[in-house]
Design a protein that fits this description.
The complex is a heterodimer of chains A (277) and B (188). Helices cover 57% and strands 0% of the residues of chain A. With 277 residues, chain A is mostly helical. In chain A, α11 runs antiparallel to α12. Chain B is an all-alpha fold and 188 residues long. Chains A and B meet through α1, α2, α4 and α11 of A and α2, α3, α5, α6 and α8 of B.
Chain lengths: 277, 188
């Protein structure tokens, strides 16, 4: 069918699949999807939300998948608290007084743009198992997304790896945003912030904001709070969300205008500068 | 046997067995979706969101999938729609100004460089095409889909697909020639 010239064909052949994603790309998106879809599941298990799910386009089959699975409830509760708060993913805003809080747990500035689609989705089966060939999760948080309980439920014969201690720590801490940090909190702070900085360096500010949301939830009074604010403000600048960046930076710039942090923020779009990258 | 497994073994998927699981689709087609979105023009900073959007739609719609088209064609149709939105959004938020990291994994640095150069030229050429012609070109020449499959993915009449493909190839070659001439002129 092709009638391309030699030069064009040669170019396509030489480029090959150089634009294929890496394993890290695959796993990063898998984790984010697990969070989003896990959040969806929790809503489907409540009576009121099930009604909403059924009323959504394409929800019939999804609802049928979710309804009879008794194992979903505890996992869904876990996911709901973690995913909804951590990512700020609100799947369905049901007018149900007994529903767990969702958006309230996370400032809207940390909700990345482009995730609105999740609000429209009907809940369905969970997606939280790493592929057998996948590299190990890059973070304790991601490990937490694929709980051993979930694996046992979905694949009874699958070997469920023992969750590292940090996973259960996160699981317990998530319900309360003001809970005391774990003993080894600094290393976890460094890890979360490092992930956010790496994502920002790669030009993926939405992903970076996701990590910062995790950080803010886990460590509302963290030792690296000022660093997280810096990354957050710069990300908001990169995303051209200048007003949010200014609002976020203002208290810090006012409180200690001569500090290194304030000077850094001053050079960004939140201050008088125009630095975005 | 799951349909995806059957397809891997060269057998036709069995519609009676139902659609493959979401996990199977993700594992088998993640690269395809990612690559297609990039080739359709979604800038790197918006790519994660776009890939997620595609798979969220797949997650919602997979139970309805009935093998009227191939899974690959169906996925490309979704990716095509998502790409249009993602590109518009990226332009609005000026995400295309952000750096574009490359994930090149080659045997030697020289090989990596040559491949990256070819990829860069390919993308610059694609960037000069209209979105419709670019999509047709990507499907036919880069993903090796047939004209009927492209018609399925886009919902266009077959004759329109053939016409668009002819124009896309013509444009691609003209742009490539121009870019080559410019590069050679700059090198002198």
């Amino acid at each position: 069918m092709s009638s391309l010239g030699t030069d064009a064909k040669d170019l396509i052949a030489r480029a090959g699949h150089a634009d294929d994603p890496s394993d890290a790309d695959r796993e990063r998106i898998r984790r984010t999807l697990a969070l989003t879809l896990g959040g969806a599941t929790v809503v489907s298990t409540t009576a009121a939300a099930a009604k909403i799910a059924v009323s959504l386009p394409g929800a019939g089959a999804a609802g049928a998948l979710a309804a009879p699975t008794a194992w979903i409830a505890p996992i869904a509760l876990w996911f709901g608290l973690g995913a909804a708060a951590g990512l700020g993913v609100v799947v369905l805003t049901a007018p149900e007084p007994t529903a767990p809080p969702t958006t309230a747990a996370l400032p809207s500035r940390l909700v990345p743009h482009g995730h609105e689609s999740a609000h429209r989705l009907a809940p369905a089966a969970s997606f939280n198992q790493p592929s057998p060939s996948a590299s190990p999760p890059a973070s304790p948080v991601s490990e937490a997304f694929s709980t051993s309980k979930a694996r046992r439920s979905v694949e009874p014969s699958a070997r469920a790896p023992k969750a590292p201690p940090i996973t259960s720590e996160i699981g317990r801490a998530r319900p309360s945003a003001t809970a005391d940090p774990p003993v080894d909190s600094l290393s976890e702070e460094i890890h979360l912030l490092g992930q956010a900085q790496r994502a920002r360096a790669a030009g993926r500010c939405e992903v970076s904001l996701n990590w910062l949301a995790q950080y803010a939830l886990r460590f509302p009074r963290g030792a690296l709070k000022s660093e997280s604010i810096t990354v957050e403000v710069l990300c908001l600048c990169e995303l051209n969300r200048d007003a949010e960046a200014k609002a976020r930076a203002a208290p810090w710039m006012t409180a200690a205008p001569d500090s290194a942090l304030a000077q850094r923020l001053q050079r960004s779009c939140a201050g008088t500068g125009s630095e975005r990258f | 046997m799951r349909p995806a497994t059957a397809r891997r073994r060269g057998q036709a998927p069995n519609p009676v067995a139902g659609p493959p699981s979401f996990e199977t689709v993700y594992d088998e087609y993640f690269k395809f979706v990612w690559r297609s979105l990039r080739r359709l023009g979604v800038p790197m900073p918006a790519l994660d969101d776009a890939v997620q959007e595609v798979f969220l739609i797949v997650h919602r719609r997979l139970p309805e999938f009935e093998y009227r088209s191939s899974l690959k064609t169906w996925l490309f149709g979704i990716a095509l729609n998502v790409s249009q939105h993602a590109i518009r959004s990226a332009v609005r938020h000026r995400k295309d100004r952000l750096p574009c990291p490359q994930s090149v994994d080659e045997a030697t640095p020289q090989e990596a460089l040559l491949r990256a150069e070819a990829l860069g030229l390919l993308y610059r050429t694609l960037n000069e095409l209209s979105h419709e012609r670019r999509a047709a070109f990507v499907m036919a020449e880069l993903e090796q889909l047939s004209a009927p499959e492209i018609a399925e993915a886009t919902g266009l009449p077959l004759n329109t697909v053939y016409s668009r493909l002819r124009l896309a190839r013509r444009d691609f070659e003209a742009v490539l020639k121009r870019l080559r001439a410019r590069e050679e002129g700059g090198a002198r």
